[in-house]
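User: Sequence recovery, please. Input:
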């Protein structure tokens, strides 16, 4: 159970993105924060100053999650990506990439240029970004051109070499004039290579040079020039905050990082699609403390990628999994294309893996207590029940209940729990066919017979073909004996246990092998049995209520000759109530759309005959 107050206490004081979920697991809001702890807590404090829309959104929040980033800038771009991917209902201003500029290096040209671009395209050029400051992008491009003297004109080179005089940039020493062949193509490409290194983050030497020039200009009292260097220095620092939440290659990638402590581990997976981080998942693992990281990763790869419908071209991992060659062969057979497992050591790729690892560490720390509580009330509770009954192992439990009112529309319910958690996809309903009147024993016999005969006959794997490790009956000796008789008739051996209630209809113990076994009301096993019993009862009652409501949707008009569904609806729409229909004359009834003289007389005579 997600306790909002407890989870608020665990929020980190770091930048990141938070995602608010409703009871249907839908993401209803995505936001960013410089300080996650302060920002998220504000939603659950006094409603003063909050708009009605925000208050409505807060009332729907059941739980939240978050992704930490290294800077507010990263959080901003990640927020944009997640809003576009999930389109949360309470995010009114969905941002678009066109608001975030890129730096494009046109390496597809013989003499490349560096320009600002509004979008990243699948072409042969290189893109860097996106960035949130247009001014910083323009200043950085200007700075690069000042340092490396790259061209900014639109001339078609080498076709137009020597056709026109060099432009003003050459005379201002901002360009080496490749348009006049004053610099060779090889030397020009060497300058472009240095500019690319600069954009890739190798700019320490530039920062040092600018800082020295700024100080030198200041010492010489040339404050105007010093201010220019200061602004350029700030632009370079802004642009150096490279985005780890987006890749310039437009590739599909999974980023895997993990953290472990004792027998617990968390694996964090970031999903990058077409270069954008669009989502994440994390997985809790119980491991052998002696197990090596490589073995842990191998097992995770096998379990995760056997169940996911999409395998990306590249998988970045914190460490190399065991038996990588065999693993790659298996991944490629599933993808039917080449797959790479990459363990990056530096640069953007390494920072992506580091970010996934940081989030895994945070999740492990935050969720450790919650995981233990959850395991205690599920797996731990199942173990208590198994120990009480003297069974070696219990994984799947099925519970059955019968619901009827004086024998009317008797129904049966089957609920399924695996590892102490409800498996709702395997729940089944039964409408009693062979029993008339209030006979719970006969009804239960029919339900169990149909359930297990289905399981024995069907070839395709489904909820019926998976037999339980323990059968739980809503009742004591009588219901247990019915179940045992059905199993014996079908040649099945499954432990059967009765969930016994006291006079106040509260669970008091288990009936097993002709003995009533008491359960401590404070034990997790007791609480689990109570939950299962209540769930089986709820599911049966819900089905019975639905059947009754369908049966009771019956109008008196349906009993009138010549009145079908269309005429019934037309009568109700025209007169709005049964009393007005009764009071209507034949002429008034005949004026109803779809009615004729014969049907009008039928309605009139039905209500006025003695």
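Assistant: Recovered sequence (610 residues):
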């Amino acid at each position: 159970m997600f306790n909002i107050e407890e989870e608020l206490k665990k929020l980190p004081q770091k930048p990141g993105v938070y995602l608010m979920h409703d009871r249907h697991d839908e993401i209803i809001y995505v936001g960013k924060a410089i300080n996650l702890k302060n920002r998220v807590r504000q939603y659950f404090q006094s409603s003063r100053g909050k708009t009605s829309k925000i208050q409505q959104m807060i009332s729907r929040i059941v739980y939240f999650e978050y992704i930490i980033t290294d800077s507010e800038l990263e959080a901003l771009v990640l927020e944009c990506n997640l809003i576009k991917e999930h389109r949360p209902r309470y995010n009114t201003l969905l941002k678009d990439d066109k608001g975030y500029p890129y730096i494009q290096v046109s390496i597809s040209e013989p003499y490349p240029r560096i320009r600002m671009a509004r979008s990243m395209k699948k072409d042969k050029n290189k893109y860097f970004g996106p960035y949130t400051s247009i001014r910083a992008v323009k200043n950085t491009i200007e700075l690069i051109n000042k340092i490396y003297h790259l061209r900014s004109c639109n001339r078609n080179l080498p076709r137009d070499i020597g056709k026109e005089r060099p432009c003003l940039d050459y005379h201002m020493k901002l360009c080496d004039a490749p348009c006049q062949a004053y610099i060779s193509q090889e030397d020009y490409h060497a300058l472009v290579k240095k500019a690319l290194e600069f954009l890739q983050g190798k700019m320490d030497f530039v920062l040092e040079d600018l800082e020295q020039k700024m100080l030198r200009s200041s010492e010489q009292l040339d404050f105007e020039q010093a201010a220019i260097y200061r602004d350029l220095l700030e632009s370079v620092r802004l642009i150096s905050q490279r985005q780890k939440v987006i890749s310039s290659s437009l590739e599909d990638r999974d980023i895997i990082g993990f953290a472990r402590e004792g027998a617990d581990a968390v694996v964090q997976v970031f999903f990058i699609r077409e270069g954008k981080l669009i989502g994440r998942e994390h997985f809790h693992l119980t491991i052998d403390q002696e197990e090596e990281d490589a073995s842990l990763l191998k097992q995770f790869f096998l379990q995760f990628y056997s169940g996911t419908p999409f395998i990306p071209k590249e998988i970045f991992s914190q460490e190399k999994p065991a038996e990588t060659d065999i693993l790659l062969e298996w991944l490629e057979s599933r993808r039917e294309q080449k797959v790479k497992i990459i363990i990056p050591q530096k640069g953007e790729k390494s920072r992506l893996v580091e970010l996934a690892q940081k989030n895994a560490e945070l999740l492990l720390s935050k969720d450790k207590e919650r995981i233990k509580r959850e395991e205690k009330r599920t797996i731990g509770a199942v173990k208590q029940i198994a120990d009480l009954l003297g069974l070696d192992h219990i994984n799947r439990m099925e519970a059955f209940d019968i619901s009827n009112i004086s024998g009317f529309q008797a129904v049966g319910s089957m609920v399924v729990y695996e590892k102490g958690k409800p498996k709702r996809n395997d729940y089944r309903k039964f409408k009693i066919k062979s029993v008339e009147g209030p006979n719970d024993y006969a009804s239960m016999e029919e339900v169990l017979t149909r359930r297990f005969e289905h399981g024995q006959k069907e070839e395709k794997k489904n909820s019926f073909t998976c037999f339980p490790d323990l059968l739980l009956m809503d009742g004591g000796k009588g219901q247990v004996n019915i179940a045992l008789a059905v199993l014996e008739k079908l040649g099945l051996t499954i432990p059967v246990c009765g969930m016994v209630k006291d006079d106040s209809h509260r669970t008091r113990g288990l009936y097993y092998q002709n003995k009533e076994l008491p359960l401590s009301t404070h034990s997790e096993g007791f609480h689990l049995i109570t939950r299962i019993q209540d769930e089986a009862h709820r599911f049966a009652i819900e089905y019975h209520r639905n059947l009754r409501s369908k049966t009771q949707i019956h109008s008196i008009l349906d009993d009138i000759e010549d009145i079908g569904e269309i005429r019934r609806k037309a009568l109700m729409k025209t007169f709005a109530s049964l009393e007005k229909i009764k009071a209507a004359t034949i002429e008034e009834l005949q004026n109803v759309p779809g009615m004729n003289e014969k049907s009008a007389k039928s309605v009139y005579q039905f209500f006025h005959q003695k």
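The chain has a mean pLDDT of 82.
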